[in-house]
UniProtKB/TrEMBL annotation:
It comes from the Eukaryota. InterPro entries: PLipase/COase/thioEstase. Keywords: Hydrolase. Residues 1-165 form the Phospholipase/carboxylesterase/thioesterase domain. It comes from Arabidopsis thaliana x Arabidopsis arenosa. This is Alpha/Beta hydrolase fold.
Amino acid sequence: IKWICPTAPTRPITILGGMETNAWFDIAEISENMQDDVESLNHAALSIANLLSEEPPNIMIGIGGIGLGAAQALYLASKGCYDTNQRLQIKPRVVIGLNGWLPVWRSLQNNIASNPGGRDRPISLPILLTHSNDVVPYEFTHKCAHSLLMAGFQSTLRKYEGEHNWEEVKQWLRHYLGL
């Protein structure tokens, strides 16, 4: 197993009053009605996919993140199921989103359905989405997880009070990576 943990570029973030921090995309609010910075999400998805495409074929690829990183990982994984851009066609074995959400979650089913062959791919991609804080409202995380499930992904949502149950996350990884 090889872990690659890329760091997002530094950029001003609207929700933080323009303060610069490491982030894959800009965000003005966290809610189910938020406007997604699709241009930056696409740019970051391509950068991450290019990084992962250099891995040898015998490497099991998994993607994940925390907060904004989780949102980016979920976006990349779901977009790879319907985007015709061959550079985004990485095939992760697992996806983990800790305290995150799925950007453009409302259009996921339509995007997959409108792509020939797109319906076949999500079924084999297990996704673990967790929630353990109040930054992202639980109801929003639940709707994103449901959207993934309805689109055909093996989506699992776990809600934790306080800290994550890291033993459960490790067991989930062991199961889906065959370790």
